[in-house]
C-alpha cells in the first residue's frame, strides 16, 4: 500500500508575508472576542446577588437539565435563588422556562414542583414549555408573556449571555449568577459560552423568531393580579 504523506503548510518566508500572517491572526482573534466583549459590556452593570437585586415583579429561571425527572443540581441552585427572592418579597412571580419538546422530558413542570416544595405558591409560577434556548426564552418572555422587566437567574458562566439577550429582546433585566461547584459540568459550561457568544451576537443582530412562538399567554398578568398587582 502506498503511504500518503501530509505536507505541512509553509509559513511565509518574506518579512512582508510574515507581517500579513500575524495581522490576519490578530484580526481573527479580535473578531472571535467581539461577541464576548459585547456580552460583558451589556451585562457589566446589570449583575447582582440575591441580597441586593432590585425588587422586580418577575423572576425568570432558565432550564438546566433534569436527573431522573428532577431538577439537576445546577437547576436546583437556580430555583433555590428564585424561591429565596420570592420569600423575601423581592419578586412576585416566577417564570420557569425550559424544554418540553417530548412527553418524557418536562423541565418546566419539574421546576414548578421544586418551587412549590420550597415555598412558592403554585399560582405565582408561570411555565414556558418552549424555552428551547436562551434567545427563545427571552423573546417568548417579552412577546408571549408580556414581561418588560425581570430578574434573570442562572449560573455565573451563563448569566451575562442571558442578560445581553433579554436586553436585546426588549426585557430590561438584572442578572443573578448563582454559585456552582467547579466540576466537569462547570468547566464544560464555561467553555461552551465561548462558542455560544457568537450565536448570541447573531441572534441580537438578526432577531430571529423562536422555534415556537404561538399566541399571547396571560399567565404572568394573572399571577400578578392574584398577588395584588405589581410591586411598588
From TrEMBL:
Protein's recorded name: Vancomycin high temperature exclusion protein
PANTHER family, A to Z: INNER MEMBRANE PROTEIN, PROBABLE PERMEASE, INTEGRAL MEMBRANE PROTEIN
Q: Does the entry feature the keyword Isomerase, yes or no?
A: no
Q: Does the keyword Transmembrane apply?
A: yes
Q: Which residues form the DUF218 domain?
A: 57-173
Query: For this UniProt entry, which segments traverse the membrane?
Result: 21-40
- Matching Pfam families, A to Z? DUF218
Q: Which InterPro entries match?
A: Cell_Envelope_Assoc, DUF218
Which UniProt keyword terms apply here? Membrane, Transmembrane, Transmembrane helix
Amino acid at each position: 500500500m502506498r503511504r500518503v504523506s501530509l505536507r505541512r503548510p509553509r509559513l511565509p518566508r518574506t518579512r512582508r508575508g510574515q507581517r500579513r500572517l500575524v495581522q490576519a491572526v490578530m484580526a481573527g482573534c479580535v473578531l472571535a472576542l467581539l461577541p464576548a466583549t459585547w456580552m460583558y459590556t451589556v451585562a457589566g452593570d446589570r449583575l447582582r446577588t440575591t441580597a441586593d437585586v432590585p425588587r422586580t415583579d418577575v423572576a425568570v429561571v432558565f432550564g438546566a437539565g433534569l436527573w431522573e425527572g428532577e431538577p439537576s443540581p445546577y437547576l436546583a441552585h437556580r430555583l433555590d435563588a428564585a424561591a429565596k427572592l420570592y420569600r423575601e418579597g423581592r419578586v412576585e412571580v416566577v417564570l420557569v422556562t425550559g424544554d418540553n419538546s417530548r412527553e418524557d422530558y418536562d423541565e418546566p413542570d419539574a421546576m414548578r414542583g421544586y418551587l412549590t416544595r420550597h415555598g412558592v405558591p403554585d399560582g405565582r409560577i408561570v411555565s414556558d414549555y418552549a424555552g428551547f434556548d436562551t434567545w427563545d426564552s427571552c423573546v417568548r418572555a417579552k412577546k408571549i408573556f408580556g414581561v418588560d422587566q425581570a430578574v434573570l437567574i442562572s449560573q455565573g458562566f451563563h448569566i451575562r449571555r442571558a442578560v445581553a439577550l433579554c436586553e436585546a429582546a426588549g426585557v430590561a433585566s438584572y442578572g443573578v449568577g448563582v454559585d456552582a461547584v467547579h466540576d466537569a459540568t462547570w468547566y464544560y459550561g464555561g467553555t461552551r459560552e465561548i462558542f455560544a457568544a457568537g450565536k448570541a451576537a447573531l441572534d441580537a443582530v438578526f432577531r430571529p423568531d423562536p422555534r415556537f412562538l404561538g399566541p399571547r399567554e396571560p399567565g404572568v398578568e394573572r399571577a400578578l393580579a392574584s398577588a395584588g398587582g405589581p410591586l411598588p
